[in-house]
Write a structure and sequence with these properties.
CATH topology of the largest domain: Rossmann fold
CATH architecture of the largest domain: 3-Layer(aba) Sandwich
Number of helices: 11
Structural class: alpha/beta
Radius of gyration: 19 Å
CATH class of the largest domain: Alpha Beta
Order of helices and strands: HHEEHHHHEHEHEHEHEHEE
Distance between the termini: 51 Å
Helix content: 25-40%
Strand content: 15-25%
CATH superfamily of the largest domain: Vaccinia Virus protein VP39
Shape: globular
Bound molecules: S-adenosylmethionine
Largest sheet: 7 strands, mixed
Strand order of the largest sheet: 5-4-3-6-7-9-8
Number of strands: 9
Length: about 300
């Protein structure tokens, strides 16, 4: 990975100009960043994706078909570290981010290590959704929190900042490398006594946890969302909330040509929670789509 220059500066401008001058553009990114994504977004839309460009210059070989899932979405997805695309207008997102309390140093440390060492750092919830989760935890007074999908610990640490004294978070992670990074940052944080990382397939871990949970954050493999929903609904406290991330899936949820397993799984999940009489749900457009669910009645 080649580090990119600063935020929305030369990389974004160069990239934006390259895109503006090549329409239909033939660009797919290798190592890219959010800032560049914004540059592209301002510059226009891509129609074909072919080869890999960096700073407007072709580098590397064409991406895999998994990476390019449809160029209009695909370029932006790749520019955002091959994982995430804004569904909110980037200028609005940037404004919202600038008007959200800055993350503490400990979260900046998680984010910078994640960007430097892990694939798909865009999986971190980031500043807006991190604060959103923190405020949900704070406002609901959730005492017992379950997270499915730890990654490097950003969201768990963000939620911990909103916990009442005596509250705790159990977070499930299948990848021992991710869990190791998260554990290290948690150990260095003021929340070491409140967050437990459990390694293994989340459904197995869940089976060993009695609950009840006041807040459950689902943010792991998308194909598991329906099973996670069923498993955690049974263990949700009467006024508990289930919060599911990425439910708009970079807008692919609406792309009729996208029949990938993850997209189908998220559509099934979204359809289920909107019609299941056991629950009341709201689909929000926070970041990549955050669905909040409570028990009905
Ligand atoms: C989107 S990331 C989580 C991001 C994290 N919530 C944050 O904001 O920093 C998803 C994580 O779920 C983990 N994961 C995937 N499948 C899993 C499973 N079956 N059980 C537990 N964790 C899983 C992945 O290894 C990855 O670290």
């Amino acid at each position: 990975m080649v580090p990119l220059p600063g935020r929305e500066t030369d990389a974004a401008q160069t990239f934006g100009s390259a895109i503006a001058s090549q329409n239909p553009i033939k660009v797919v990114a290798g190592a890219m960043a959010y800032e560049v994504d914004r540059g592209w977004t301002r510059a226009g839309r891509a129609h074909t994706c072919e080869g890999a460009f960096r700073h407007g210059e072709r580098v590397g070989s064409p991406p895999s078909s998994r990476e390019v899932f449809g160029c209009e979405f695909g370029l932006r997805r790749l520019l955002y570290d091959a994982y995430m695309t804004d569904i909110v207008d980037p200028a609005i997102e940037a404004y919202a981010e600038a008007h959200t309390t800055a993350p503490p140093d400990l979260l900046e440390a998680v984010a910078s290590e994640t960007r430097a060492t892990l694939n798909a750092p865009g999986m971190m919830v980031g500043r807006i959704e991190g604060r959103f989760l923190e405020l949900l935890v704070f406002g609901t007074g959730a005492v017992s929190i379950l997270e499915i999908g730890t990654f490097s610990g950003y969201s768990a640490l963000a939620m911990a900042a909103g916990l009442v004294p005596g509250g705790s978070i159990v977070t499930c992670e299948i990848d021992p490398v991710h869990a190791g990074i998260a554990r290290r940052h948690i150990a260095a944080s003021p929340y070491a006594d409140r967050i437990e990382v459990m390694v293994g397939p989340a459904l197995d871990t869940l089976a060993s946890l009695p609950g009840p949970f006041d807040l459950v954050f689902i943010d792991a493999d998308k194909s598991g969302y329906l099973a996670y929903f069923e498993a955690v609904l049974a263990k949700l406290s009467p006024r508990g909330l289930i919060v599911a991330d990425n439910t708009l899936w970079s807008g692919r949820i609406l792309d009729p040509t996208d029949t990938s397993a993850d997209t189908l799984a998220l559509r099934a999940f979204n359809d289920k929670v909107a019609t299941d009489p056991r629950v009341v749900a709201v689909q929000t457009t926070v970041r990549d789509g955050v669905t909040m669910i409570r028990r009905a009645g």
